[in-house]
Model the fold of this input.
Amino acid sequence: MVTRLAVLGSPIAHSKSPALHSAAYRVLGLDWRYEAIEVAPAGLEDFIRSRGVQWRGLSLTMPLKHDVLPLLDFADPVAALSGGANTVLFRQGEGGPTLHGFNTDVFGIAEAFRDAGVARLSTVRMLGAGATAASALVAVAQLGADRVLVSARSEIKLVVLVELGRQLGVDVRTARSDSVDGGIVPDAVISTLPGGADHPYRFDASTRESSVLFDVAYDPWPSPLAASWLEAGGRVIPGIEMLVNQALMQVRIFVGGGVDRILPREEAVLAAMRESVGL
Done:
């Protein structure tokens, strides 16, 4: 029986997750099958409930990260705090499988900053207020940020982020314009917007030169925002770094059962995963 895993979403054909996971399992010597499957929110529960004993886990894209929460038997603290699970582990038992949800995006974002030499943050500017923004807020809180200014179109989502900031001990404020509150240049600017999205947010040269940009977009790359940063000589962390790091945590979960289960030959696994996406 071949162990099966998949990334779910709609659309999903563009996903790099199959390449990343397949590279990892080859290094680990596991004959596991990981694929991309088109699943819309309305079909998520039926899909999950119909999986057989050969299924080990799922990766989820938005909006499924939110939609899966009521279906879980257990959610790790980070998933519960951020309001989204991008990883589901099937634990097989005598009474059938139990569903365990995890958020590996937070680790992926924090580790991308650390890999770029950014070990600590104080002030952050964030664009967008969706699920990735919630994960980014948790990640920057872990890196020491105590002040975050968020710009987004959705008032409801902004309110959710302000409340999450309260729980984290982070002063989250909202703004409609691209001006930095109080004239302060932030340590980092985080864009959680789609790579090709048109948006009104523009940053002056001093911000682009001094603040590190973390752009979750990776296809097409560079995004217009990243291109403007690079033109100014600023530092940019591409979203592909987050994608690889969060996928490594997913492999830990699927293989060992938890994010703290270091993989055999983990350095070689990570190297193969990075190579699979051109890094």
Q: What stands out?
A: Residues 155 and 193 are 16 Å apart (CA to CA). The chain has eleven helices and twelve strands. The first strand starts at residue 4 and ends at 9.
